[in-house]
Amino acid sequence: MTQHLQTLLRGVMADAGQPVGRIDILAADERTYLLEDLNQTAALYSFERCIHELFETQVQKAPEAVAVVYEKESLSYGELNARANRLAHHLIELGVKPDQPVAICLERSLAMVVGVLAILKAGGAYLPLDPAYPSARLRQIVGDAEPKLLLCDVAGRTALGAEAVADMTVVDLATATTAWDERPPSNPDPGTLGLTSRHLAYVIYTSGSTGIPKGVEMSHGALVNSLAGIGTSKLRTLQFATLNFDVSCQELFSCWKDGGALVLLREETRRRFSDLLEFVEREAIERLFLPFVALNHFAEVWSAQRLPLPSLRELYTAGERLQATPVLKVFFEAHPNARLINQYGSTEISVIAEHHLSADPSYWPQLPHIGRPIANTRVYLLDGHGAPVPFGAVGELYIGGAGVARGYLNRPELTAERFIASPFVDGDRLYRTGDLGRYLPDGNLEFLGRNDDQVKIRGYRIEPGEIVARLCEHAWVREAVVVARQNGDGDKRLIAYVVCAPEAGSDEGDEGGLAGALRAHLSSRLPDYMVPSAFVRLAALPLTVNGKLDRNALPPPADQAYALAAYQSPQGAVETALARIWAELLGVERIGRNDHFFELGGHSLLAVQMSSRLSQAVGVELSLSRLFARPVLADLAASIVELLSRSGPQELPSIAVVSRHEPLMLSFAQQRLWFLAQLNEASTNYHIPLTLRLRGLLDRSAWRRSLDRLFARHEALRSVFVATQGKPRVEVLPPNAGLPIIEHDLRERSDAEAALLDLCHEEGRTPFDLARGPLIRGHLVRMSNEEHVFLLTQHHIVSDGWSMGVLLRELSQLYR
């Protein structure tokens, strides 16, 4: 830092009139280290090969080995290759050429896999279209890409509609008797086709800020390089992602390049994590690719079922920032043969960095870094002027090297904006990611989030501007903004704020009707993960003194911001239980019997959690197909009652009154955590931290009383774990014990933020005494008269991620 200051002063002396932000403060040796030494990643790889040729190599090595499995069917490498080749020759006869997008719109099946391979072998670039997407979205993509050829099944043809299909030659892969059965089973010759590794392998569309999705053009060579670092083992790999998510390409070809078996699963199994868990166990899956939210929920479901998964070897996660949650640590402690690999990338660069986490989860930090650049990849951290930032400083990630996409299909202006010529390496191109990062002292990269409004929800990258554009097409909307908010459960949701036109009528009355209308409008135009959970009506968007949107002033959504139906209270035990579960999951205080799960912001992952909780509360296994078919609470409850009646007369499980004068038994999960604590009493691995920054005047006395009432309400928070003759038992502290809170006043400290950070670190390093308790504690830090920071730490043995959401809602209600 001293050297930087000296360099800065020399720059000022040399030209006192230049802006300070433009002065280069890097010494020559640091510049060399940042631009060259950290980017010494050159390595040999098969840069002249196409991605499907990796598959063909394994066909030559082991044609009888199993290549793909779907339910009771399987194809060997030789059989899959022959099927794909016959179809590829047919596509060539239909006019497919290198770089030509070929649309593929099928449900999961062997035909889907054959279709992808055939397009690549014919020289085309596959353009995936998800049959589950709204028809309007699919038509928008087709209109932009203008594919001349479509591979589909009945579901795909129906999803696209007759108008979109009319301008394309359709090849129906579900046809029993195919026109290409007599075509040769041999590999098409890339040389004859004029196909090279510089041609496109796929065009995948992602969300666009202008309201128009953009198609990312990815070459064969870039994909081959990104796959070079993914294992070298022949592993049985699950195909979890949809084709329109670029991770699916990793799943297919990381498996096939080493001779593994790719295992497809039904969409129903993919959505229901208890079934997914059983599927992974039954099919002996060895490699999984899951975004963080899905991975964490997979671990939560495993924690409840404790199904052993001895086959697991590699779990890759990407798409959103990894958090080393307690449940993830426990999962990997129970599976010592499995490794967690944190990847970083995007559709425009595939994977460019990865970090293999320690085999011992106790060493994992709360937010693991993303490692170092993979082979033939260059990473630069630059400031707003395109200059490198000092080592350890925060900058925007720019990516160069072999893995960078060609650009955006039919979008030359956007391509020129995001893909720029490298000022550091002649002939190289850099992709501006919009992500922020920094180098850690050991040279690893830390990902710090977005530099713009782009967000990631459930692993999908979303431009809120596209949602805003669609919202503003509605006659009732004059202005809109869409932001992502994270609740206490860690679930990130989209919230839309709208200023209405006169056509919408008064802002008094049925705001839930407005939410319902806008949700229906977006649902017909966007994928479900891009439809906001809530719609908040504002008289005007809040602005800062500089006239910019004041995001901090946007209010949290109230109940009326959701698409609530006219309220009728739940009737009967099943409806009441269901309403309580929905309220907890969706963050809506009052759920009526006419409310719709998905219109209140529900999605597939929440549906999985709902099914799991319902099984515990009512004693019935609810399939996701039943929920999707009957998403209204009263209808779903009636369906559950019907299921209960078929399995014989049952009552809802009763809660037996148990004396608190005697020690209580530990649950299985508590036994496990207690045992781990005995191995290392100073461990802080199972702390669950929460930090709240409270702005405005705070009634500290009322805050304390609210916390004490919360502590008194929940016996779990008052539990301690005492061992008698080596056997642990639960004892419950009295309701008036009070939640321990320590107050700190940093108002006079010039280094208040640094002191706060020190306090956070110290709190995180302080272990709990499970026998004495309490196993929840807080610090209230006074930063100024109108700003406080509240630190709350709990031990995982008395709380979990779901409980945190309940705690925050109750604390908010008690304080109000």
UniProtKB/TrEMBL annotation:
Keyword Phosphoprotein: yes
Record bears the keyword Disulfide bond: no
Taxonomic source organism: Bradyrhizobium sacchari
One GO term (biological process): amino acid activation for nonribosomal peptide biosynthetic process
SMART domains from the UniProt entry: PKS_PP
Listed name of the protein: Amino acid adenylation domain-containing protein
Family named by the database record: Belongs to the ATP-dependent AMP-binding enzyme family.
Any one Gene Ontology molecular-function term assigned to this protein's record: phosphopantetheine binding
Cofactor annotation: pantetheine 4'-phosphate
Pfam families noted in UniProt: AMP-binding (PF00501), AMP-binding_C (PF13193), Condensation (PF00668), PP-binding (PF00550)
All residue ranges annotated as the Carrier domain in the record: 569-644
Alphabetically ordered keywords of this record: Phosphopantetheine, Phosphoprotein
Protein origin, superkingdom: Bacteria
GO cellular component terms attached to this protein's record: cytoplasm
